[in-house]
Amino acid sequence: MESSATRAAPTGLDEAGELQIHGSLVDVGGLGVLLLGPSGVGKSECVIELVRRGHRLVADDIVRLRTRPGEGAAAATLLGWAPEHIRHYVEVRGLGLMCVADLFGSAAIRDRCEVGFIIRLEAADSGVSFERIGLERPRERLLGVEVPAVRLPVHAASNLATLVELAVRDWQLRLRGVNAAQRLDERLRRHGAGGSTSIPAAAGDTAPGEEGAR
After folding, report:
1. 102 is a catalytic site residue
2. Which position among 46, 47, 81, 194 has the lowest Cβ density within 10 Å, counted as fewest Cβ atoms?
3. Is residue 130 part of a domain?
4. Strand 77-81 to strand 96-99: parallel, antiparallel, or no bridges (unpaired)?
């Protein structure tokens, strides 16, 4: 929906209409996941752990994007890849630059993929509000294409790779019509006690992306 879409900050739009942004792109279970967040939040470490679990690196640190027109009535999609000079590389603080293909083999990399999901990593103490219920997923707009998005809190004990995998599996279920939060909401509506007919929103909670849309 238009009201829930926000724009990810670009680092540059070239004459070919391609966008360059700071982030990482990983194929997680067949879904292209764009990881965004401030420098040092843990994107590259998350990428390494995802690759170790069998997922595939597309780009780290810098992601280039362009639209791919849809066929017939299909909507346009986003295609993402790494700049050639850093393709297959990740930067791990304290260790330096590493080639994922050397470390994990050619099965651990992809040259490009469609961007189907955005995950923003934010410090848990940053003051940002995080989703507590998740009836719907907001969307962010990149190059005119709206992509579903979530925001995840990062703290010292965070297992980011597991949270990313959970977010991806949940979204893939939603694409098949399985929405656990909505199912619970409907159950409470049918059996609500004390006049409560839906899941109560926690005070101060907002959906990911709402701050940027205001």
Report:
1. no
2. 194
3. yes
4. unpaired
Alpha-carbon dihedral 158, 106, 76, 67, rounded to 10 degrees? 90
Tokens of 34: 């764009």
- Point out the catalytic residue in the list 27, 43, 60, 139: 43
Residue 4 to residues 68, 92, 201, Cα–Cα distance (Å): 23, 34, 17
Residue linked to tokens 């939040």: 41
The total number of structural domains in the chain stands at 1
Query: Is 174 annotated in the active site?
Result: no
Asked whether residue 98 is domain-assigned, the answer is yes
Question: What's the pTM value of the predicted model, to 2 decimals?
Answer: 0.80
Does residue 202 sit within a domain? Answer: no
**Which tens digits make up the pLDDT trace of 75-127?**
889 999 999 999 999 998 889 999 999 999 999 999 999 999 999 999 877 77
Question: CA end-to-end span of the chain, whole Å?
Answer: 14
Q: Could you say which of 22, 112, 141, 174 is catalytic?
A: 22
Candidates 55, 56, 60, 61; catalytic one: 61
- Interacting residues of 85 by C-beta distance below 8 A, sequence separation 6+: none
* CB-CB contact of 42 with 121 (8 Å): yes
61 carries an active-site annotation: yes
The reply to whether 132 belongs to the active site is: yes
